[in-house]
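HOLO CASE FILE
Compound: iron/sulfur cluster
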Amino acid sequence: MPGMLIQVFKNLFSRPATRGYPYQPREPFRAARGTLMLDIDKCIVCGACEKACPAGAIEVKPKEHLYKYDPYSCIVCGNCVEACPTGCFEITSEWRKPVTEMRTMVWEVTRTKKRAERMA
Ligand code: SF4
Ligand code: SF4
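Model generated. Tokens follow.
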């Protein structure tokens, strides 16, 4: 019984064990793998990321100048970050925001980097 009373008083004067989400969202952990970001302007359409991707989330078609990335297949493993020779990728610790429609991202890219245009 005394042990229980001590615990009750401890709980009364200590910080709550839970967080008031969504008003107090938890900050992401440092180095957490949240979202893969792609700077398509740096892309030289080499296809190294497509070969390195275990989830088939990337499709590179140099002849058609097309680059496709499906963020909903991506498991944020980071293989493409290591494989890319021009540093196109970055993984941020922020989680991707919820969406109402899942869309593959498609860009038209040329090797000369003259055009990197989001198509869908
Ligand atoms: S992070 Fe992994 S799964 Fe996502 S696109 Fe890159 S290689 Fe593919
Ligand atoms: S994103 Fe990087 S690895 Fe992928 S095709 Fe472009 S330059 Fe090559």
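CASE NOTES: The radius of gyration is 22 Å. The mean pLDDT is 88.
CLOSED: yes
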